[in-house]
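Sample pair:
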Amino acid sequence: MKANYITPQEIETLDYSNFVSLVDERNRCSGGLRSISDIIVNSRLGKTSRVLEIGCNTGFASINLALMSGCFVIGIDTNNNALDLARQYAKKNNLENNISFVCEAAENLSFFDETFDLIWVSNVTSFISNKHSAIREYIRVLKTGGTLAIIPIYYRLNPPENLVSEISKAIGTKIDINTKEYWHNLFTNIPEISNVSIELYYERDFEYLDVSDKINKYIISLLEKPHLDKMSIAQKEAVEKRANYFYYLFNDNLKYCSYSIMLYKKTRGEKEAELFLTKLVEND
């Protein structure tokens, strides 16, 4: 998406995915670099590891997984504009030989069975209609003993219906009021998969902070990006207006939300039940 060719009226109708491409925002996963570091350590990624990111967008997670672990990464997305920006980002970081970006959908992956040591899906499964089909594909291309890493966003408090409706409109996908338990059940009860199971082996929960006092400064930094210099005053005003709409809306929504880092291991055979469960004790 060429920043100087889009009209102000078109800018004001962009969904969030296309807006991110327009302003070249990295679109970080929840927790940013801290989440990436946590997953690298606990999935034991290294220079010989092969990683697939589902829904890579403009490449933040893919690039940083490669930078921080030395692994080889393939990122897929259905947004060609975002993929172009991801390739530029990889080139800036001298990662052309460590990373590849491909346009394809999660529900019909082109890769062979048992290709990857880690499948990174962050929160993208929220935006996929046929979730079971996509998850079956995640598991198919994941090596036995490999890790499926998800960072689902879910509601810990019941949000107003009009807020959820507006969020759905903003991102161009209907959002359901899902809980953490929903995500557990979704990823551990996949129909039509025989002799394969995935078991949760690592989990950490987080809540979002209210960042309303930081949004204006963040938007100013977006407008200072060099590729937006060719925009007219009217275009920049439209970008600022659209950014205000997205970021204040998302901040209001995330007050009701939490996210978790969940790591699942793929094994062969039926999953064994666990009786004596434990929980982490947080010391003050």
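The longest helix spans residues 233-254.
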